[in-house]
């Protein structure tokens, strides 16, 4: 029997079980305004394909990674244009609450602790 991988992004966000404000979407990537943001402006970017983390990317994922980085660059550019600063990061290990590769792109006043 194969172990089934479940995560918040696959099970709730990408299946549409949780309505989120979409920032950007295409066939491979999805970006939305965080529902419990750390900062005044906070977007989460993820691949629609399940990939556990940055460390589990494979050679076959190179094109998807490039698309994610182009999208992160676009969102970061929007934030820089409108707000003058931003941060872009991904978490690993115990810092990664949902085991689905995703990036946080945020700026502005911090609304809650990390």
Portion in beta strands:
25-35%
Examine the coordinates and then state which fold CATH places here, giving the name of the CATH topology: HIT family, subunit A
Number of helices: 2
What distance separates the N and C termini? 37 Å
* Helix content class: 10-25%
Side by side, the strands of the main sheet go 1-2-3-5-4
Give the C-alpha Rg. 14 Å
Care to count the β-strands?
5
What is the CATH architecture annotation? 2-Layer Sandwich
Which CATH class? Alpha Beta
Report what the structure shows.
The chain has 114 residues and is an alpha+beta fold. It has a single domain (8-105), classed as 2-Layer Sandwich (HIT family, subunit A), CATH 3.30.428.10. Helices cover 25% and strands 25% of the residues. The protein has two helices and five strands. It has helices spanning 8-13, 62-83; strands at residues 22-25, 29-33, 39-47, 87-89, 103-110. Strands 1-2-3-5-4 form a five-stranded antiparallel beta sheet, with helices on one face.
């Amino acid at each position: 029997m194969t172990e089934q991988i479940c995560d918040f992004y696959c099970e709730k966000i990408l299946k549409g079980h949780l309505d989120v404000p979409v920032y950007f979407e295409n066939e491979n990537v999805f970006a939305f305004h965080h529902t419990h943001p750390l900062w005044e402006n906070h977007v989460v970017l993820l691949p629609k394909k399940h990939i556990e983390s940055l460390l589990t990317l494979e050679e076959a994922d190179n094109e998807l990674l490039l698309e994610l980085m182009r999208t992160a660059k676009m969102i970061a550019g929007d934030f820089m244009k409108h707000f003058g600063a931003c941060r872009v990061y991904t978490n690993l290990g115990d810092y990664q609450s949902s085991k689905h590769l995703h990036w946080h792109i945020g700026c502005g006043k911090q609304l809650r602790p990390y």
